[in-house]
User: Which sequence fits this backbone?
């Protein structure tokens, strides 16, 4: 499906896809890092009971990147402006990976605009660590980068991906996805190439990695930031999904998030990677629909 575009009051233009416009309830799908709304393709038609809005976040896919983001809250504010421009009030949110962090911040800051919240292999409310590395590329326990420029030179988690994006090295990016995200089931070749093509459009990787490292909605320090306590502002019902083969979000990180939420339904998927969207789209869509219809 061709993407639509919408200019926000902050000067950014978000590209988005829209499906099932005749349905009464709206579900917004929020993608993660190194991706775009196109990566939700496997579950779109399986969520036929809902009006779906699937944006590319600022700096991803076909959306603009005029002003650099400093936090995941910037994406949440973009989403609020986006929904206002579409004249939408209350919507359900489904956030995948980094998109889960965006959805958490949105739900905390804009509770009256949030129906139910779905977290798919979500980043923790305490951020995603990028520790300093030793000469062998091994993480130094409890040591983090002091600024964004230093973090951008990280030899394992950041710099190689930045170079791949700058060089247009789709083959390397595809290998990264195969090894870390699609480690259970790879998409069909045409779809996989389409997803990687979307990944290669990203212009904000360092900014997003820095935002993730400093993200902390908890009440305790995470080693980088003190925490703003806004996790306590989330009062809506939450569905949290985690696969046992996820190499990106370890189980303890998932558990610390679900332990912090007051009204959460936890679903553990067996033989599922960081992308149950591709591993088991039918089961994921059924779980989402059951939760929203409850």
Assistant:
């Amino acid at each position: 499906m061709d993407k639509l575009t919408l200019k926000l009051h902050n000067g950014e233009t978000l590209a988005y896809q829209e499906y099932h416009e005749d349905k009464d309830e709206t579900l917004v799908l929020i993608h993660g890092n190194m991706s775009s709304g196109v990566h939700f393709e496997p579950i779109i038609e399986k969520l036929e009971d809902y009006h779906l809005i699937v944006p590319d976040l600022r700096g991803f896919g076909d959306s603009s990147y005029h002003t650099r983001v400093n936090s995941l809250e910037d994406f949440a504010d973009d989403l609020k402006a986006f929904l206002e421009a579409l004249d939408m009030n209350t919507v359900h949110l489904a956030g995948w990976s980094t998109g889960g962090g965006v959805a958490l911040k949105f739900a905390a800051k804009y509770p009256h605009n949030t129906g139910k919240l779905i977290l798919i292999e979500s980043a923790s409310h305490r951020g995603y660590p990028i520790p300093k590395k030793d000469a062998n590329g091994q993480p130094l326990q409890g040591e983090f980068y002091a600024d964004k420029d230093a973090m951008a030179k990280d030899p394992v988690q950041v710099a190689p991906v930045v170079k791949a994006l700058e060089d247009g090295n789709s083959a390397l990016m595809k290998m990264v996805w195969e090894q870390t995200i699609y480690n259970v089931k790879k998409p069909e070749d045409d779809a996989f190439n389409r997803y990687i093509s979307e990944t290669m459009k990203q212009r904000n990787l360092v900014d997003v990695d820095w935002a993730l490292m400093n993200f902390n909605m908890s009440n305790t320090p995470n080693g980088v930031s003190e925490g703003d306590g806004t996790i306590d502002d989330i009062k809506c019902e939450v569905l949290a999904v985690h696969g046992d083969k996820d190499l990106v979000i370890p189980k303890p990180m998932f558990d610390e998030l679900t332990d912090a939420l007051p009204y959460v339904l936890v679903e553990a998927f067996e033989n599922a990677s960081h992308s149950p969207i591709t591993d088991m789209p039918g089961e994921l869509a059924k779980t989402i629909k059951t939760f929203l219809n409850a």
